Amino acid sequence: MNPHWRSFLESTEGVFDNDSTELLNFGDAAGELLAATQQTVVVPLTHLGLIEATGEEAKAFLHSQFTSDINHLADGQAQHAGWCTAKGRMQASFVVWRQGERYLLALAADLQEATQKRLQMFVLRAKVKLAAQTDSTVMLGLSGPQAEEALSGAGLPCPAEAMVATATADGTTVIRLDTTRFMIVAPESAMAALWQKLTVKARPAGIPAWRWLDIQAAFPLVTLATKEEFVPQMADFEKIGGVSFHKGCYPGQEIVARTQYLGKVKRHLHRVTSAQILKAGDVLHSPDNPDQSCGTVMTVAPSPTGGYEALAVIQSNFAGNVRLGSLEGPSIQAAAVNP
Prior knowledge:
This protein folds into two domains: 1-264, Gyrase A, domain 2 (2-Layer Sandwich), CATH 3.30.1360; 266-339, Elongation Factor Tu (Ef-tu), domain 3, CATH 2.40.30.110. Helices cover 24% and strands 31% of the residues. It has helices at 3-11, 29-38, 58-65, 109-123, 147-153, 188-198, 207-217, 253-262; strands at 15-16, 23-25, 41-44, 48-54, 78-84, 90-99, 102-108, 129-132, 137-143, 164-167, 173-176, 181-187, 203-204, 267-274, 283-285, 295-302, 308-315, 322-324, 331-336. Helix 2 runs parallel beside helix 7. The two termini are 39 Å apart.
């Protein structure tokens, strides 16, 4: 994380986790969570990293590695994408967008360095350059009923459709993620002034508020805690356009395709509520299936109403009787995202 950006956020009462670059809150964690449910919030997305892919063969390279159809990603469009192992397990997930001949890949910050290094191993002689942008570029999340007004007040464009990325002349990009959520990507040098303008309409909030919004939107972000845990369909990744079944080979493609066409996916994405603290990577069990675990927690946030909420990949036929950590663990409630 850019130290100047961190210092700026700390000067505006931002509180960071001591062991990571995660921005926890701006002094009122509970109030920020509640605001995310019905007001407009702006969140520094310090839990995300950014990789840039350039070069005349960047499109072909990414298309050959990712689960989505990069070949048909138009300039100014965004899409979800996964990168799988040979066994079809996601080792990273991305929001990818194209700006001219540049491709930007937003992913979990705790996977950025290792993912870039491993991707580089497959470049070989291809005319592709991968470069980390996390320290020179800042990402913000904007959500709520006045999000469009906040963008306008900051002099930023407002994409009309989801997964459209609109760039300005100074290098700032706005991506509409869904009906009320946007991601803003800008040079670090421009972000302090932009922050001041956006916070006229939007309340500053920490990462927990954005994760709670991710859970409501059923956005499955792979992190270090869940790396190589899921075939894409387990996280319902194909339902958000993150998998193309009409493209050529990529790592794990045979397994992903076979899983789809044989209809053997038993685990799917669920929203979970718990009175007990949860964390990404927690293993779930069911007394109805004592021989093995029935799921894994993916994304967690404190609930605005108390307790915790999460996205978890759970074996569907055991979702009605789920325990945290062991067969004797506390009971949690689970509901399928796409029943």
